[in-house]
Design brief:
The protein is of the alpha+beta class. The protein is about 20% helix and about 45% strand.
Length: about 170
């Protein structure tokens, strides 16, 4: 079996995987299919003032599937709602090489262990401090440290501009 990439409508990846699994289970060609993967990464985001770790798709609109391409298996996949087709030309999908797949699988393992931070702010953006000793102060983002989840913000204290280091959860955009 070889790995192939299925192009789906964006946002339909999980629905397509579920439909694939159900259709494969009820078909007479189960032996033509292997694993079905949606590449995901863990991302630290701030929602309602709290830091949360969520899973986010690395390649929105794409699913990896291990299969033998025959007329029946090709038709089973391409006739599902939400499937745009395979990566490749026409009715001949292009398989992912063994080397590329090993690299992808090893990077997926690393992604599950590490958590990347989504940076909700930009340099020069105006913010308001909502937690900590500088609550209700406003300022401008001077520097961003995504790995640490911190910002350096220029706030005015007693008429003087002062740089203050704050956590992402301590501020909100204006």
């Amino acid at each position: 079996m070889e790995w192939y990439i299925i192009h789906t409508l964006s946002g339909y990846e999980k629905k397509v995987r579920k439909l694939l699994e159900e259709n494969i289970d009820f078909s007479s060609i189960q032996d033509q299919f292997g694993e079905i993967l949606i590449p995901m990464e863990n991302v630290s985001v701030i929602q309602r003032g709290e830091r949360k770790i969520i899973e986010r798709q690395l390649y929105p609109g794409y699913i990896l599937i291990q299969m033998n391409v025959t007329d029946n298996s090709y038709q089973l996949v391409t006739r599902l709602p939400g499937v745009m087709g395979f990566l490749g030309s026409g009715t001949h999908p292009q398989s992912v090489t063994e080397k590329e797949m090993k690299q992808l699988l090893s990077s997926l393992e690393e992604e599950k262990v590490t958590v990347s931070s989504e940076v909700p702010y930009q340099k020069g953006e105006s913010i308001k401090v909502v937690q900590g000793p500088f609550t209700d102060f406003t300022g401008t983002v001077e520097e961003i440290y995504p790995q640490r989840g911190k910002l350096k913000v220029m706030v005015t204290i007693f008429g003087r501009a002062t740089k203050v280091e704050l956590d992402f959860v301590q501020v909100k955009g204006i």
